[in-house]
Amino acid sequence: MVEQRPPLPSSICDFAMWEPVLRLLRAYETERHTGRSIRGAGHMGKNGWSLPLRGPVSPACQRVVDRVRRALERAEVDEIAFTAEIWPTGRATLRLVERGPAVEAAFGSPDLGVLVLVEGALPEPWRRLPDPSPDARPAPSADLELLERTLRERLPEAVGATEEEIADVEARLGATLSEELKVLYRMAPAHWEDWRDAFGVVSCELFTLDDLYTVDVTSRSPRWEFAATETAVTRPDATVQSLAGSPGWIVIGYRGEGEWLAVDLTPGPRGHLGQVILIDHEQSIGAKLVADSLTDLALDQLREEQPDPSTDQLPVAAVVGTGNLQAVQDAAHPALEVLSISECDGTPFSLTPLIGLPRLRTLTARPGTLADPLETIELTGLEFLQLGPQEWRVLLDGGAVPRSLSAAAITPHDDEDSLSVAAIANDLLALWNRPRIIQAVLEGDLGPAA
Question: What's the average model confidence in pLDDT over 122-144?
């Protein structure tokens, strides 16, 4: 049974509360739309807001926004997305959408967002575990005695961790620390109260033993909006595995500007056990090799930037349509994981060449680009599907929505009514018994523009 949610509170459905927002929209757009209706969209909520205004936010605008956000807070509504249309006479229609817990809001956009059909589901690259590397060995530069001497010179009075404390951390992390890492924490203070001058001892703000952690995949932006089209391919000559996270990536320090250093216990095919990698907050997949060993890191013998390895393999992600590949069959091959169909100049595309591809998990297609939307039912491995409203309606009416999906998105036409898009979304959510989206339509009169 589909979870029923109560309607929006009456205080939120009060046209008077939204009237100042509508007046802001009209004041900004009137000169550009003389004699025509004005349309705008945005969102308001506890985590931010957006309005289609350019330039700096005036104090008057900020007061209007703050007033609405306080009202939402009092009503215990996390966020409202809205679209508005204002006619020259002053008549206005405001459509409110409260997405609910089954919708991942679009980042920085008034669009509906992604429907998470399976609670807690993550895109496939975020579910991927590291390949085992039983033959991996420490780099030739890993020198335990040299590392110990170097650290003792820099931290002559430090009282390091005991073997029992190291064993406790290994149990907490579920990983056996590399021998170099054990040397590091036998030399460095184990706890904050003893830390003193340990910052920068190995080219970063070194964490205490108590603060070591492994890179969890959920810490690296697993938003379906972006992650559904990400790929993670570890090449045969890679030093670092292409992963969102790994239980063998043990973060040891902070480099600033959203960069962390980690010791890598699950290296790539050409990597070394215990190598040092950099994890960048702007990257969702993979990491950069910084040093072959902690010894090299301590001696500032860092690896130079390595170019991306060349490959003659067909891409695992492809785009078909205007300015890209010209036919679906050009992209179809057994390793294909992600296909995006952009605008097309001529005949819509058939999906027949994709049938039977073993790894295809994501398909996005702009409205009007599919010759027969019902062909998607033959793509049995899809976990993410993004289509236009009409294409989704064909699938819903035909009982042909792929049940392998974990998430879905609707790409509206520019003039698509937000309520009709939300209605399609609710039909999709109902198939998975997920909480529905709440909608409301408010109408009022702003009077003629001054």
Answer: 93
Instruction: Categorise residue 433: left if φ over 0, alpha if ψ from -120 to 50, beta otherwise.
Output: left
Please give the sequence-ordered ranges of beta strands (E in DSSP) within 199-346, or none if there are none: 205-206, 213-215, 246-256, 259-264, 275-280, 288-291, 317-320, 338-341
Distances (CA, A) of 126 to 7, 220, 223, 245, 315: 35, 9, 10, 7, 19
Buried b (16+ CB within 10 A) or exposed e, 389-417: bebbbbbeeeeebbeebbbbbbbbeeebe
Encoded tokens for 258 = 């959203």
Distance CA 317, CA 325 (A): 12
The pLDDT score that the predictor gives to residue 376 is 96
- Give the pairing type, strands 438-445 and 79-86: unpaired
And the tokens for 244? 């969102």
- The torsion angle over the Cα atoms of residues 372, 374, 380 and 385, rounded to 10 degrees, is 80
Radius of gyration of the chain from its Cα atoms, rounded to whole angstroms: 27
pLDDT in tens, 198-214: 556 677 888 888 899 99
The pLDDT confidence band at residue 263, using thresholds 50, 70 and 90, is very high
Contact 353, 376 (CB under 8 A): no
pLDDT digits (tens, 9 = 90+) for 135-171: 899 999 999 999 999 988 888 877 788 999 999 999 9
CA 367, CA 433: separation in Å to the nearest integer? 26
Q: pLDDT per residue over 343-392, tens digit each? A: 877 789 999 999 999 999 999 999 999 999 999 999 999 999 999 999 99
Tell me the residue length of the chain. 450
Q: What are phi and psi of 384, to 5 degrees?
A: -140, 135
Token representation of residue 132? 């085992």
